[in-house]
Amino acid sequence: MHAPVTQDVHTIPRKLPESGRTNLIGLTRPALRAALVEIGIPEKQAKMRTGQLWQWIYHWGVRDFAAMTNLSKDIRARLAESFTLDLPELVTRQVSEDGTRKYLVRIAGGHEVEVVYIPEEGRGTLCVSSQVGCTLTCSFCHTGTQKLVRNLTAGEIVGQVMLARDDLGEWPEPGVGTGEAGPRLLSNIVLMGMGEPLYNFENVRDAMKIAMDGEGIALGRRRITLSTSGVVPEIARTAQEIGCLLAVSFHATTDATRDILVPINKRWNIETLLAALREYPKATNSERITFEYVMLDGVNDSDADAHRLVELLEGIPAKVNLIPFNEWPGAPYKRSSNNRIRAFATILMQAGYASPIRTPRGEDIMAACGQLKSATERQRKSRAQIAAETGL
Ligand code: SAH
Ligand code: SF4
Q1: Is 104 helix (H, G, I), strand (E, B) or coil?
Q2: Ligand 1, from 290, 323, 328, 372: best to mutate by most atoms within 8 Å of Cβ?
């Protein structure tokens, strides 16, 4: 690990929630409409005003009601009296040698989450957090050692996307064009930051609906990938109510090993999980499911594991994403050797599965998969807390 190349400490003063004003960021279209009606916008205008406001907020990235020039002065004044347009606060931004950016973001209550932007050729992916900490306790995951503090609101989730667009300077400039031509800097979202998105379903769904809305951020549903450790009862709902791509933290080929690596397996085992996954592509008419598989030296990386994985995937449109284990202080595992990872990938490829090896990005700033954990919440869980949180 090397020292981060640059570290900016932003000194944006922390905004305290101003009493009585509702933050509009994160409201779905119907909720936004209802909020407008509540402040006296006549019903018959409400739909049009919602559309106008929506475009200002999510297409143009405007946060000042006074600048919303197609609304009358009177409406603008009323909006400013009753509402705010608040994003989470950007605390620090670190830029890795490889261009990866890691943002530390503070949300109400003073909690912090991390957000990672990964630039790629002609595109860029934002890795978004859905919870502060995680109730689950996957034994190889740094976030898993942090207590769950709380679920993020929809506004805090879509707010991460908006903050990143602010930082990348990616909002179109009014009067200059819509900004839709050419490749986007932030073209994809992965729900692979801190937390289990399916344990915060409604907020994740509402935030992603906003990100997908064609009159705003307008990322297609195939540009969003939700990663779950395997919350089986919410998988069908994800297909119906979000319709994005799905990734699953699979990581083992026997229940005995998966029980240790991904303890939610004790509640929904491999067979139950695979049954739910078989239905997903049919329900969304979508592409393959991504099976994430962390390569842990001597734990889950044998040829026998690779062959078993091929058998388990039978009948599921799948690709396997092999993730070299990213170490963190005190981690109980080692990364598999490059030769081992390649041998494992070869077995999968010979069986017809695309199995890219995920290149760790932003390791010098601890931004790689599974390394996220906010500095203020470094408290380690006790066994009793783990038992209380998970019921496992
Ligand atoms: N909670 C969700 C999403 C966040 S984790 C889930 O578990 O799917 C994103 C991916 O990184 C998951 O596949 C996770 O298992 C993996 N991961 C966690 N810790 C890791 C580590 N130390 N090294 C490599 N991958 C890790
Ligand atoms: Fe939570 Fe995912 Fe980490 Fe497991 S891998 S502890 S589900 S964040």
Answers
A1: strand
A2: 323
Question: CB count, 10 Å around CB of 389?
Answer: 16
Position 16 in a domain: no
- Label residues 326-365 b or e (16+ Cβ within 10 Å = b): bbbeebebebbeeebbeebbebbeebebebebbebbbbbb
For residue 164, the CA-to-ligand 1 centroid distance in Å is 21
Question: Would 238 be classed as within a structural domain?
Answer: yes
Q: Is residue 127 part of a domain?
A: yes
User: 370 CB less than 6 Å from ligand 1?
Assistant: yes
CB 253 within 8 A of CB 309: yes
Cβ–Cβ under 8 Å, residues 124 and 185? yes
Q: What pLDDT, on the 0 to 100 scale, is given for residue 387?
A: 46
Low-confidence ranges of the chain (pLDDT < 70): 1-19, 174-182, 283-286, 368-392
Query: Residue 188 Cα, ligand 1 centroid: separation in angstroms?
Result: 18
Number of compact structural domains in the chain: 2
Q: Answer yes or no: are the C-beta atoms of 151 and 194 closer than 8 Å.
A: no
pLDDT at residue 384, as a whole number:
45
Find the CATH number of the domain harbouring 40. 1.10.150.530
